[in-house]
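Researcher: Here's a chain I'd like modeled. Treat it as a single chain, no partners, no ligands.
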Amino acid sequence: MKNKEQKGYWIPCPVCKELSDIKVYEDTVILKFPFYCPKCIQKSTVNVVRLRMTVESEDEKQK
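Model: Modeled as a single isolated chain. Structure tokens:
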């Protein structure tokens, strides 16, 4: 890890696009995270790698 302070980013809800209370950094890796948004009351499974968030499709959830 670098000595320099890393900048954090709040990830948005994949449904309503409002910022969540989950903060990630450039080196954060999250796989199959059960994301719940209290604002729009939706559940999603998300992956975050190198600040890029993807949402798992319904087909992948059933496997």
